[in-house]
Structure formats: C-alpha cells, structure tokens
C-alpha cells in the first residue's frame, strides 16, 4: 500500500485530507509540526510528502530542504499563497510540484499524487544517451563519465521526457501534461524552475546549456549538438 | 555672455559678489579721483612756486647785470646778454630742462644817427617761436610784474611738450625793451603725477579685488548651508531620508539647519509610518487569504465528498449538495478576485513577462470558454493575419483578460456569433472581441470598468460572475502599459479592444483596432 505523509498544522484540513486519501486507497501519516517531520520521515519513510508551507516549529521551505538533503522522495507543497514568490521559493527548495489552496477538486489532488507516484515513461526502457550523459531508464540512473548524478524522480522524468525524442521541441504545456500530469494549465513557473534545477545538475555551464535548450517563445528541447 | 547672465540668475553668490564689486568700484573711483586731484594740485603748486622764485631771481640778476653795463659798448652788452642767457638756462638738480626766449618789443633806443640799435632777439634749445602763446607775451609787454602761463610748445628737434612759461619785461641798454621768458619743462612734474596716478589705480584695483574676495568668503559662509540644504532636499526626492545638515554654531544658519533636520526627521517618520501601514495592510490581506483558504479547502473537499454520494440522498439533500458545491465555487472565485484587486490597490501586483504565442493562447481560451458555456452553439470566429504571434507578456494575466472578455461576450451574445480580431504592428498587438447581442448603453460605458458594477442588475448573475472581472482586466492591461477600450450601443452589441505592447512595459504607439467598430460607423 502507498504511504503519503501529510504535514499540515490545520487539524481539520489534515483530517479531511486523510479521509479523501484513504478513500482513494492511500495510507496516510499525519504530522502537524515542521520540526517533527524529519524524525517521522526517518522512522517510516513515505512514498510521497504533502507539505504545507506555513508550519509551526519549522517552516515548510526549510523542511523541504532538509528532506531533499537526504532523500529524493517526491514532495508536493501545499500553499495558501498563490504568489509567485512563495511558489518559486518552494520549488527551489526542492519541491516537485505544488498545489495552491483551495484545490479545485479532491480528485485533482489524488491525480497529482498518482502522477508523482507512478513510473512515468514506462514505455521507455534501457539506455538513452544525450550529449555526454548516459541515462539508464530502467535503473533510474544518470551517469556522466562513470560518475552518477543524483536527480530527483521529477528531474529524471523531465530529462527522460526530453531525451527520448532529441531535437523535438516540447512546449511548456506539453511538458506540464507529460511530466506533471496537468491538463489545462499555463503555469510555466513550474517548468522554468525545474528546468533550471535540472540544468544546474547536468549542464557543464548552466548559463550556456548544451543538453536542455530553450526554444524562444515555444519551450524546450534536448540538445543534439556535437553529433550526439 | 548668456552663460554669465544665466549664472548670475541662478547663483546667489555670484549675484552678491558682482553687485558688491560694482558698488565698491564706484566708491573707489570717486575717492581715488578726489585724492588724485588734490595731490596733483599740490604738486603743481609747489612746482609753480619754486619755478616762479627761481625765475624772479634770474630776472633780477639779468636786470642787475644790464644796469651795470649801461655805459658799456654794444659789444660788451652783447657779451652780457650771452652771459645772462647761459646763467638763466642753467639747470638745477630737481629740474628737467629749461629754455629761454628773448625778444625786443616797442621802439628801439636811438644811439646815434648813423648806428642802428642792436637787436638781441633770440631763443635757445630749438624752441619754435611761432608756437609760443601770445597771451603771456602781451601780459609781459603791458605790465612790470612777473607773468606766467601753462602752455604747449613745439620744439624743432623733439616732441611737443607741456611747459610753464614765466616772463618779465627787461631793459637792455642801448637796445630797448625786451620780453624775457623762461620756459620750464613739466616732464618731471608729469612723471611724479603719473606715478601717483598709477599708485592710486593699483591700490584701487587691489582694494576691489580684496573686497570681492572678502564678499566671496562671507557669502560662501551663508550660501554653503543653503547649497547643502538644497542637495539634501534633492536626495530626499530620490528617496534617501538618512541625510542631515551639520549644525555647527547657534546663528541663523544653525537655526535653518536644525529646522531643516526637524523637517527631515518628521518626513522620515511620516513616511516610515505610511510604509508600515501599507505593510500592515498587505500583511493583513495575505493573512486573511491564508486564514480563509485553509478552511475553504476543507469545506471544498468535504462538499465534494458529499456531492460524490448525492445519488444515495433524497432529492432535496442532493440538490442542497449541488448548491453547496456551486456556491463554494463562487465564493472561491470572489475571494480570488478580491485578493487580486487588493494586490492592485497595494501596488504589489507583479508582472511576469514571458515569450508566448498569443494565437495559441486565444484559441485555447476560446475552447475553454466555449466548453463551459451555457450556450455552446454560439460560434466564435477568429481573424488574424499570421499563424503565430509571439509577444512578451504575463501569460496568466493575458489569459485572464481574454477569458473575461470572451465569457462576457458569450453572456451577452444572444446566440449571435462573436468575432475575435487580432492585428499586430511592429510595436503593439490588438485583440478585438465583438458581439452583436444586448449591447451597452453608451452612457454606461464610462462605468463598465467599475468594481461590482452591473449593466443590468435584473439579469446579472447568469454565469455567477463576481462583478470584478472587467475591472481586473483593465488593471491587468495597464500593468503591461496596455489599454482596454470598450464600445457599446443598446441592441447593437459591444466591442472590447485590448491593446498590448509587443514587449510588456514598453509604450503603445496607437490603437491598431479602434473600439468604435468599422461596421457601425454612425455612432454619435
């Protein structure tokens, strides 16, 4: 059974989230303080964390950084503030996705959670190469010159989505639909922040990317430079 | 010259210095000339006295010698005349040079019947007799006293010179009455006078320069704090309120400085109070939003869980759950719109421009709006020149504007088709949304962007709009430096035109599409 850790200081909302998730066949671990998250996480590692931004004890952003430091577990931030500043801060702290309260539908929340939990790119198997990177889709590994590069699951999915069709231009909407499972969304911040995070890990010079390249006004494509 | 006058009109210091120097120039000129004229009169008098005294003694000694030679022969007398000339023209140390002019006048004495009396008329030193003034000669002939006159005479071998002429009648034995003139050069006296003049001029100029300098120093003391205050005030306008004036004494300037500093302090505290208020206001809005959103999330999820079970409820409870869900939707939308409005009011709305294809965005908006429309049969025609139109703007806001305009048009279209026109120029893009439905009274156009304003209160809430849509759309457009114009006529439909710069934040040069539609040109 899938285990999701729900971190929220609002008891009623946490309980409601518990009801909805349990109804969808997901086990729930409720935590109400930011400074308790790490301990619970180590004792009973969940498959995904739903993390509120405003928390007593320790801020959600800080919690996110601490967890990222030791795990690549998917993190979905819950934010009451839709302001870009908070969203970007959460994403930069390592969150894979975020949801702004109030959510449109409980089903939307569950869909997001399932997207983050499922093995994306299940159709792609084996080894991909792009630039000087070797991507082992099956083993979930990215290697450059014998050295492993640690990517979160979402970053890995993003890279594979681009790399499996080198040269094809993906619009941000297409990436949102493919990697995040969004249907109608124009939230390009999500894509932009994660592309930047990915670049900072895999590019030699993130300012002049050679693997994930921007197509101005359209979106991104995986580089086919250098004959690779 | 222009620069000088403009400097005069802008600089207090220059103004004060120039007027002080001009005034003191006048004063120095007056006192200087008075002093000079007194000094030169004195010098001339002393010179005249000594010349006259010397001339008198010369005349006396000449007359005396001629008296002694009364009985001598003409040859001896001629010798005496020569002696007199030589002794009279001897120059003392203080004198420059001296000439003599001797001329007979009146009848010559009769010596004998056969010999004419000798004439000793002569002049020395190259003196040109013709330039000799007549007046003094006349005076000498008609009186027995010493006569004098200042004059200008010519010399044969050098320049004309100003001289003092002193003359007296002399009787030369066996010859007749003579006028004897001693001509004193005034070179020395003039040299003295010019030295005095130069000294006075030099002193005058030095004095004026010093007065100017002193004025400058004094004025600077006064003007420096004024300049300092001006530059600090300028920094204030640029938003730097930390600057203060130095208070170094207890004079009027110090009073000015401390008054200025008090003003600065009060300004700073007022501004920080206002800033604080606005921060508190923003904080409040943000807190309210957070506090409202969390229970709203719980409410929504709870209502959805209930709604999902509505098949098993009896009809009234099932309908109630439907209403609950719908009203929560509306409540949430209202909350979002109110928050957005408060962001505009607090001026914290941020533009996040990205490059995107406007055509794709509008097509998606049309599809979405049509999908949720009550009247999906209404056709929306879209007319544009190019396949793609990349602009740099805040995608979320442009999408919100388009959804607003489109759903507005759908609400009032009365089943007639809607036309969307897109025209781009080098600097701007314009999107016109034209419907042929109920229309708007021209008089109501000015209020159409007001918050919570509804054209027709009786049939307003067809789609559960919040009444803030057009107002937010206008703010969104203006945040891009764009504009949103509206045209309407009762029964003829409405036309909304969004004009945006190609790159958000730049200026729009005009209106590629006018709000007044081309198919309806006869409006008022």
Describe what this molecule looks like in 3D.
The complex is a heterodimer of chains A (228) and B (524). By secondary structure, chain A is an alpha/beta fold. Chain A folds into 2 domains: 3-117, 3-Layer(aba) Sandwich (Rossmann fold); 127-227, Orthogonal Bundle (Arc Repressor Mutant, subunit A). Chain A has helices spanning 11-23, 37-43, 60-70, 84-92, 106-117, 153-163, 172-180, 188-202; strands spanning 3-7, 27-31, 48-52, 75-79, 97-100, 127-130, 133-136, 141-144, 147-149, 170-171, 212-215, 219-222. In chain A, the strands form 3 sheets. In chain A, strands 2-1-3-4-5 form a 5-stranded parallel β-sheet, sandwiched between helices. In chain A, a hairpin with a 3-residue loop joins strand 11 (212-215) and strand 12. In chain A, helix 4 runs parallel beside helix 8 (188-202), helix 6 (153-163) packs across helix 7 and helix 7 crosses helix 8 (188-202). Chain A is globular and about 50 Å long. Chain B has 524 residues and is an alpha+beta fold. Chain B contains 10 helices and 12 strands. Chain B has helices spanning 2-10, 12-68, 74-88, 134-142, 187-237, 252-308, 315-345, 358-371, 395-412, 469-479, and strands spanning 98-105, 122-123, 147-153, 161-172, 176-185, 353-357, 380-384, 390-394, 418-424, 428-435, 483-489, 493-501. A 5-stranded antiparallel β-sheet of chain B has the order 2-1-5-4-3, with helices on both faces. Chain B has a 5-stranded mixed β-sheet with strand order 7-9-10-12-11. In chain B, a hairpin with a 7-residue loop joins strand 3 and strand 4. In chain B, helix 1 (2-10) crosses helix 2 (12-68), helix 7 runs parallel beside helix 10 (469-479) and helix 8 packs across helix 9. Chain B is rod-shaped. The two termini of chain B are 58 Å apart.
């Amino acid at each position: 059974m899938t285990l999701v850790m729900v971190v929220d200081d609002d008891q009623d909302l946490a309980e409601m989230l518990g009801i909805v998730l349990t109804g969808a066949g997901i086990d729930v671990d409720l935590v109400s303080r930011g400074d308790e998250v790490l301990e619970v996480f180590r004792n009973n590692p969940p498959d995904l964390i739903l993390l509120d931004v405003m928390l007593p004890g320790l801020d959600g952003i800080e919690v996110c950084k601490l967890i990222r430091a030791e795990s690549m577990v998917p993190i979905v931030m819950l934010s009451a503030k839709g302001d870009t500043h908070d969203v970007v801060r959460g994403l930069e702290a390592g969150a894979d996705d975020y949801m702004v309260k109030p959510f449109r539908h409980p089903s939307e929340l569950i869909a997001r959670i399932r997207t983050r939990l499922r093995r994306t790119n299940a159709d792609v198997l084996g080894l991909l190469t792009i630039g000087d990177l070797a991507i082992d889709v099956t083993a979930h590994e990215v290697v450059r010159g014998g050295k492993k590069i640690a990517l979160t699951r979402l970053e890995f999915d993003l890279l594979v989505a681009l790399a499996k069709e080198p040269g094809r231009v993906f619009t941000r909407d297409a990436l949102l639909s493919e990697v995040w499972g969004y249907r109608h969304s124009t939230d390009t911040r999500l894509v932009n922040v994660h592309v930047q995070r990915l670049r900072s890990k895999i590019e030699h010079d993130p300012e002049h990317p050679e693997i994930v390249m921007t197509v101005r006004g359209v979106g991104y494509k995986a580089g086919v430079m250098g004959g690779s | 010259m222009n620069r000088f006058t403009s400097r005069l009109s802008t600089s207090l210091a220059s103004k004060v210095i120039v007027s002080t120097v001009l005034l003191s120039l006048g004063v120095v000129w007056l006192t200087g000339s008075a002093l000079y004229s007194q000094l030169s009169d004195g010098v001339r008098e002393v010179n005249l006295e000594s010349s006259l005294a010397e001339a008198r003694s010369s005349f006396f000694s000449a007359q005396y010698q001629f008296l002694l030679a009364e009985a001598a022969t003409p040859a001896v007398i001629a010798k005496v005349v020569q002696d007199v000339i030589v002794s009279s023209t001897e120059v003392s140390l203080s004198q420059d040079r001296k000439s003599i002019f001797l001329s007979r006048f009146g009848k010559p004495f009769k010596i004998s019947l056969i010999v004419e009396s000798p004439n000793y008329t002569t002049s020395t030193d190259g003196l040109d007799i013709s330039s000799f003034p007549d007046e003094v000669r006349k005076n000498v002939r008609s009186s027995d006293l010493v006569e004098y006159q200042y004059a200008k005479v010519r010399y044969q071998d050098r320049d004309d010179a100003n001289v003092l002429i002193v003359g007296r009648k002399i009787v030369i034995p066996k010859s007749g009455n003579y006028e004897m003139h001693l001509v004193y050069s005034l070179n020395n006296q003039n040299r003295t006078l010019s030295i005095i003049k130069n000294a006075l001029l030099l002193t005058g100029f030095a004095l004026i320069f010093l007065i100017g300098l002193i004025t400058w120093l004094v004025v600077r003391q006064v003007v420096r704090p004024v300049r300092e205050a001006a530059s600090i005030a300028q920094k204030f306008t640029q938003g730097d309120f930390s600057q203060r004036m130095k208070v170094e004494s207890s004079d009027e300037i110090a009073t000015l400085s401390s008054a200025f500093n008090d003003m600065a302090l009060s300004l700073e505290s007022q501004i920080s109070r206002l800033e604080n208020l606005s921060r508190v206001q923003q904080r409040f809005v943000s807190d309210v939003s957070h506090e409202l959103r969390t229970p709203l999330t719980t409410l929504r999820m709870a209502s959805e869980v209930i709604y999902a079970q509505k098949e098993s409820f009896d009809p009234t409870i099932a309908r109630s759950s439907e209403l609950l869900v719908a009203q929560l939707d509306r409540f949430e939308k209202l909350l979002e719109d109110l928050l957005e409005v408060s962001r505009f009011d607090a001026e914290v709305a941020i533009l996040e421009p990205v490059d995107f294809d406007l055509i794709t965005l509008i097509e998606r908006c049309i599809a979405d709006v049509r999908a949720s429309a009550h009247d999906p049969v209404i056709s929306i025609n879209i007319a544009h020149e190019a396949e793609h139109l990349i602009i740099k703007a805040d995608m979320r806001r442009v999408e919100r504007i388009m959804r607003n305009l489109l759903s507005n048009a759908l609400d009032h279209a009365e089943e007639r088709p809607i036309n969307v026109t897109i025209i781009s120029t080098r600097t701007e893009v314009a999107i016109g949304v034209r419907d042929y439905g109920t229309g708007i009274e021209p008089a109501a156009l000015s209020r159409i962007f007001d918050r919570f304003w509804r054209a027709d209160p009786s049939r307003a809430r067809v789609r559960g709009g919040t009444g803030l849509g057009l107002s937010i759309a206008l703010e969104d457009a203006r945040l891009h430096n764009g504009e949103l114009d509206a045209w309407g006529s009762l029964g003829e439909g409405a036309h909304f035109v969004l004009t945006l710069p190609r790159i958000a934040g730049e200026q729009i040069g005009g209106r590629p599409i006018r709000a007044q539609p081309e198919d309806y040109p006869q409006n008022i």
